[in-house]
Amino acid sequence: MKVCHISFSFLIGGIENMLVDILEEQSQHIETTLIVINKNYDEKILNRISNRVKIILIDRPEGSKNPYYLAKLWLTLFRINPAVIHCHTPNIIDILSPFKSKCIYTSHTTGVPVENLHKYKRLFSISIAVQDDLMVRGGLTSEMIYNGIDFSLFKTKKNYTTQPDEQFKLVQVSRLLHEQKGQDISLEAISVLVNNLGVKNVHLDIIGDGPSEEYLKNLCENLKLQPYVSFLGPKDRSWIYEHLVNYHALVQPSRFEGFGITVIEAVATGIPVISSNIEGPLEVLENVNSAYIFDINSVNEFASQIKQVITDYQHHEMEDRCLQGLKVTRDKFKVTDTANNYLKAYKQLIQ
């Protein structure tokens, strides 16, 4: 069986990191190809993909109407003749008219445009939250297949003791898109901790890049948080696998999120997660004792939850919480299950 995964772009982000893992798993069982349409990709993440996966770059300038690139895409697909074309951007179907009967789509977040999704042969959602969103906004039925990770790649935390004078290290790993990911809320929470709650020995590392970088750095300066916040830029997955374990907690103050792969990665590492109370992360963190949830509309509650995590470390309560959380997520979010469930769906589609 031949399967093509297609996306308009392939930059460093949660969707792409998840897709790399799925490609690796699927390529052990079927002939797998990744097609990136636009000249908008990060070579570092493409280099993570093994030689088992064929990578084809159409190199279309973003927004180009030149028919050359459409012809190149169609010719590529005719030559490969895949049994299934697995799309990861909602409007790709508009340029795949000769192949519609083979096209399926996975919705990776809430709020995606639904106007053209009925054109796909089959729809998938990465969580119940995304599945419900498609039904409510578009009347669209989709099959839910959870994203997963390779737990063996992550270092796990061994030492949960903290000293009273030790700097408490927080991290947020997200694209710098504050309207969705809420890095501005993180900065405001750090300000509340430092100025109102008397927690001075805390530091937040913000990892990622994106269009909000200048805005967030200006906000950090206006709040006078330079001693308490560092912008580390984007980091590749090997860095995350190696260094996430060095933090005391991950913060995830997203305003909307269909899933939250970084949440699972933090739990896999054995560190607690401080998350907003929106559907995607709540679904992932269900029954996880190392999850600390706050109301997305309350910066003060966010800051209080950070302070509570610090207290639980000092009272030696964190290790048991994190070990329980690791067990729950390991049983539920394995990338091998994700890849195999899609393989079953491909076979059903062909039959």
Keywords for this entry:
single chain; about 350 residues; alpha/beta; Rossmann fold; 2 domains; seven-stranded parallel sheet; 13 helices; 13 strands
Give me the secondary-structure topology.
Layout (H helix, E strand, L loop, with lengths): L1 E6 L6 H13 L4 E8 L4 H4 L7 E7 L6 H14 L3 E4 L15 E5 L14 E4 L2 H11 L4 E2 L23 E6 L4 H4 L1 H13 L6 E6 L5 H10 L6 E5 L3 H7 L5 E4 L8 H9 L3 E4 L2 H6 L6 E4 L4 H16 L3 H15 L2 H16 L1
Q: Which structural class best describes the helix and strand composition?
A: alpha/beta
Shape: globular
The CATH topology of the largest domain corresponds to Rossmann fold
User: How many structural units, i.e. domains?
Assistant: 2
